[in-house]
Amino acid sequence: MLFRTFSKLRPHVWRNGIKHYSKKASTKDVDSVAVSFNNRTAELRLSSTDFAQFADGCGVAQLGDTSVMVTVVSKTKPSSSNFMPLTVDYRQKAAAAGRIPTNYHRREMAPSEHEILTSRLIDRSLRPLFPSNYYYETQIVCNLLAVDGVYDPEVLCINASSLALSLSDVPWNGPVGAVRVGMIDNEPIVNPTRREMAASPLNLIVVAMSQNLVVMLESSAQNILQPDFLKAIKVGVKECQKIVQAISQLGKAKNKGKRDYTAVEIDENLMTAVRHLSEMRLKEIFQNTTHDKLSRDEAVKNVRVDVLDKIKAEIDSINIDVASEAFGAVCKQIFRDLVLENDVRCDGRSLTDLRDISVKVDLFKPLHGTAFFQRGQTQVLCTVSLDSPNSVLQVDPISMLTSGLKEKNFFLHYEFPPYAVKEIGRMGPAVRREVGHGALAEKGIRPVIPSDYPFTIRLTSEVLQSNGSSSMASICGGSLALMDAGVPIDAAVAGVAMGLITRYDNGDPKQIGEYKILTDILGIEDYMGDMDFKIAGTKKGITALQADIKIPGLPLKIVMETVMQACDAKSKIIDIMNRVINQPRIDKKSTMPVMELIEVPPNKRGQFIGPGGINLKRLLVNHGVQVTFQDDSGKYSIFAPNLEAMEEAKEIINKLISTDREPLLEFGGVYTAKIEEIRDIGVMVTLYQGMRPALLHVSQLDQRKVSDARVLNLEVGQEMQVKYFGLDPVSGQMRLSRKVLQGPSSLGHNLQKS
Questions:
Q1: Residue 13: is its pLDDT beyond 60?
Q2: CB 158 within 8 A of CB 122
Q3: 376: region left, alpha or beta (phi > 0 left; psi from -120 to 50 alpha)
Q4: Residues of the chain above pLDDT 90, percent
Q5: Beta strands in 599-697 (DSSP E)
Q6: In the predicted model, is pLDDT for residue 322 greater than 60?
Q7: What's the pLDDT at 750?
Q8: How far, in Å, CA of 128 to CA of 135, rounded?
Q9: pLDDT, tens digit, for every residue of 77-94?
Q10: pLDDT digits (tens, 9 = 90+) for 443-462
């Protein structure tokens, strides 16, 4: 066992279904707790460790033999930003798996895609519960101590982070609990093993706090039906309550109070002044349905500048940053009130209306598959590239151990250039946001890709213009591009982003009174609202879900309503997509790659491959054709970028296989040569069928000095014995001789004859 502390904690005490470990018999000084789950043998162990005492908080979580340690440190001076500067760093340590990194330096380098996605997952689980006015830079570091290859560390990191924050003096309105929910035989199971997950059609992470309030959801699914999906969420929320209770009791046992911090307070008189100067103008902007994204943002910006100038002119000592924050608060409140009171959104839609959708496919003929998808002012261009199985995406060794996935033959790359939002910015490798959005879109489409598809599929989604929900537009456009490429997907997939605007009872953030769920949200509705709830799937079921909740917890009732409303919306979107293309293209394009299996007799594989694989390299360089030996069938797989290249390659391969192999000539060996041509300087001869004629020089024809080969009365087709002396080191030509085989008797006979 990794932590010897557990073996020393005697006796243990059960309270409310949670096992408490302490160094004394008393339960007041509890150091560790173990949480058990229904029908599961492995316990989740949470410990307030003695590690990293200089950190503000440190917690350890263990499930099976997988253990993680999380530390939290928060600065004591506020930052200059007007948002919560939270950084989460999750790093996979090769040492935790008993491995050595495979890179040149043999040490951990830049974070992998899996580490970035896990860091984002933890961030979204914790950020909503920080006080809204807490602007102190905070860092959470997740250290993978040990991994057993049975239980994954992602969910453990969320629980350990919740524990570390609860044990620290950092202001935070937690704790939260997190579980992974799988499904075996149509029944949800909590914290499944890696082997169980391989057979599960559902992979759902649920993060919840007390009172069954949902904080974060993340899921990929094999087209799960809506009732089964909702059931899994309920089971996950229920099991999270055990973890929340355990962390709360452990935090109370440590009894570490929260620090006092300085928060920027907005004077009520300032708020009143800002509202008086801006309210009517903002209402007019938000009710003007002719505005688009740019014109609305520009109009709000002009009001902001005008209001701040007037306030600054009246009050010389005003803090312009505080005044700007007051304007933002007023603007947000007016926007939300208009939706709550009128059930009409800023672009004139009702709560459940979709934006106008435009679809095009087969835009560029040379490409394997293309699609253009536009929803409102959000545009994406999706392209499909099909390549050989050698182009699969390799997974790093530690992610392979924790997930069981070795390589991916389908992957989606999401690109968000700065011009998509009329900005000037950096162009280069994908940033964290692009990695996260691409991974979500990939989860939404992957379940409909055939597992036995022979090609590697790379789907790219470039956002040309963005006004909200570009990741869900990527799913819609990606599905269309795959059908345009003729990939036999099971069904069309669509995605939609849902929003929420709430009003609390008596100002209590846990008591939501009035609320409105918004379908297909704009960028401003995401920014001003309380949730970004993305869901994707086919008409039959759900393939992916990601819920970013910005308020401290969402009741299960609202979650259920959102899922049902989103499923109705995605069905409508699929109907629109089906009008353009409703099934994978049957007639293949001329640019489509092809693949065939050929069988090469074992005795001819050497001449097929060539010395050092030279023949296969020539096929790749000259024709783009890749040849791979299949161990299971004993055949060669031939991949060609198009049918024409395949025909050329097969013609070359047939020549290589059908041509008899050149015999190996022995140095000093005597061979029968056939004269093919007679020249002044000698005769051209061949030693075997199919050989390129070689020169037998006149000086090597006879022991007599001969200046012209014709004087020897030789004829074309005549055969003679010659001796082989290898190849000339300079010219590379064969060195042959006839005269060395002529003895003295033959010389005298020739002299008499002459």
A1: no
A2: yes
A3: left
A4: 54
A5: 626-629, 636-640, 670-679, 682-686, 694-697
A6: yes
A7: 42
A8: 13
A9: 888 777 889 999 998 888
A10: 999 999 998 898 999 999 99
**Nearest Cα to 102, choosing from 512, 398, 374?**
398
Measuring CA to CA, how many Å separate 182 from each of 188, 376, 734? 6, 36, 72
Domains in the chain, ordered, with CATH? 5-100+110-254 (3.30.230.70), 268-342 (1.10.10.400), 357-578 (3.30.230.70), 594-658 (3.30.1370.10), 670-753 (2.40.50.140)
- Take residue 610 and report the two structure tokens written for it: 């060539």
Task: Please state at what angle helix 643-658 crosses helix 614-623, rounded to 10 degrees.
Answer: 160
**Which range among 233-242, 659-668, 741-750 has the greatest average pLDDT?**
233-242
Per-residue pLDDT tens over the stretch 683-725: 999 888 767 788 899 888 888 888 888 888 888 888 999 999 9
Question: What is the widest separation between alpha-carbon atoms in the chain?
Answer: 136
- Name the pTM for this structure: 0.82
What is each CA distance from 438 to 224, 249, 411, 474, 738, in whole angstroms? 21, 39, 9, 8, 74
Q: How far is CA 403 from CA 378, 396, 408, 589, in A?
A: 34, 11, 12, 36
Reading the block at residue 85, the tokens are 């500067």
Structure tokens at 369: 């598959």
3-state secondary structure 168-207: CCCCCCCCCEEEEEEEECCEEEECCCHHHHHCCCEEEEEE
pLDDT at 3: 37
Q: What pLDDT shows up at residue 746?
A: 45
639 to each of 234, 392, 604, 620, 644, how far by Cα in Å? 48, 14, 20, 10, 12
Show the tokens assigned to 587.
């007639």
Cβ atoms of 521 and 502 closer than 8 Å:
no
Phi and psi at 269, nearest 5°, equal -65, -35
Q: What amino acid occupies position 481?
A: A
179, 216 in Cβ contact below 8 A? no
Contacts of 639 (CB under 8 A, 6+ apart): 387, 388, 389, 390, 593, 594, 595, 625, 626, 627, 628
Q: What is the spatial distance between Cα 43 and Cα 21, in angstroms, rounded to a whole number?
A: 13
pLDDT tens for each residue of 614-639: 888 889 988 889 998 888 788 888 99
- Answer yes or no: are the C-beta atoms of 536 and 437 closer than 8 Å: no
Name the pairing type of β-strands 410-415 and 456-465.
parallel
